[in-house]
Design goal:
single chain; rod-shaped; 237 residues; mainly alpha; 5% strand; 6 helices
């Protein structure tokens, strides 16, 4: 077999194994996926509770400000009551007092309600923070476990990458460039065996004369359909 074909086949084997390892490393183990999903669910609930808590704090601040303003106005109106000079002014002040008392009472009730909500949120957030941190640690531990399980694959991948660097040096640049282009376009497979006049990359019949040329093993040939490099090998080889 042509040395160029031998080198391309060896490069293809390296690339195939690299692709297998990268796919394996990209897969998330079930135990890690489960812990990540649990963490994401807790995180979503935690952030939702935190947002509601902060929303209630902001509302309390506004209600408290309005409540204090109404209390100040009520105190002024009560003082004004002793200084009125006629019944008309007296009735106007009384009406103002009624409105202000109502506003103050409503403010007090609203503040009590908000304080209860805020207290409940603080309690929930404290509990959720513990669960959130525990879940976060679990994800980190599971990632370490996955990395330990993958350590051999990672080592093999690094070795293959070095081996590939050496292998590509054996191949002429125009052929290598074409190989890379085909590999990217054809699902990582750039060189395939031809069997019974059929390309095993696209499973299309090739012209009889091309099959003869491939068997001669004089020049590198390509499948006219998928453009992959072709090589011939006897079953006994």
């Amino acid at each position: 077999m042509l040395d160029e074909l031998v080198n391309l086949i060896e490069l293809q084997k390296i690339d195939n194994r690299i692709a297998e390892i990268e796919t394996s490393l990209a897969n998330i183990p079930a135990y890690l996926r489960e812990s990540m999903e649990h963490f994401e669910t807790l995180e979503e609930k935690f952030l939702e509770a935190k947002n509601e808590y902060e929303k209630n704090l902001r509302e309390k601040e506004l209600v408290e400000k309005e409540y204090n303003e109404n209390k100040t106005l009520l105190e002024k109106a009560q003082k004004k009551l002793s200084t009125v000079k006629n019944s008309k002014e007296y009735e106007a002040v009384l009406k103002e007092l009624d409105i202000l008392k109502k506003n103050v009472n409503e403010g007090e009730l609203k503040l009590v309600e908000l304080n209860e909500k805020i207290e409940e949120y603080e309690k929930n957030i404290e509990e959720m923070t513990k669960k959130y941190e525990e879940s976060k640690r679990k994800v980190e531990d599971d990632k370490k476990k996955r990395d330990e399980e993958n350590s051999e694959l990672i080592k093999e991948l690094k070795d293959l990458e070095l081996k590939r660097e050496e292998q590509v040096k054996k191949i002429k640049k125009p052929i290598l460039s074409k190989y890379e282009r085909i590999r990217k376009a054809r699902n990582n497979l750039a060189i395939v065996r031809i069997i019974d006049e059929t390309c095993t990359g696209c499973y299309m019949k090739v012209p009889p004369q091309l099959f003869v040329e491939v068997k001669k093993n004089v020049h590198i040939q390509q499948c006219p359909n998928c453009q992959r490099f072709l090589y011939f090998k006897e079953d006994a080889d």
